[in-house]
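Onboarding guide, step 5: your first structure request.
Type a short instruction followed by the sequence, for example:

Predict the 3D structure of this protein.
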Amino acid sequence: MNDALLSLLQRLAAFDPAPLFVLSLIPYLAFLWWARQVRAFPRLALRGFELTLVFVAATIVAAVIAQNRYGRQLADVDPLHGGAEALLTLSNVLVMVGFLSRERDPHP
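The system replies with structure tokens like these:
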């Protein structure tokens, strides 16, 4: 491997992606705003997308608890990780059921 590529990989490995995470909330919040404005957007699916924000917040809290209480990352503390992932599963189910119900009854 040449030195330039190795240097690039080392700089990428040292990059902190946390600011990008915060910035990613801006388009997601814009999407939620847009979805609320569209009357044809399934309300249950919208609730699922909103619940995704709850999942994000719960995951952050669970990660802090896992680190401070157990000295481990969230993925290594099964009860906390499972609880957070259950929220994601629930939000995905709401989105799916919301769009499926919309498909069956396109004129509510």
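Each response can be followed by summary notes, for example: The chain has four helices and no strands.
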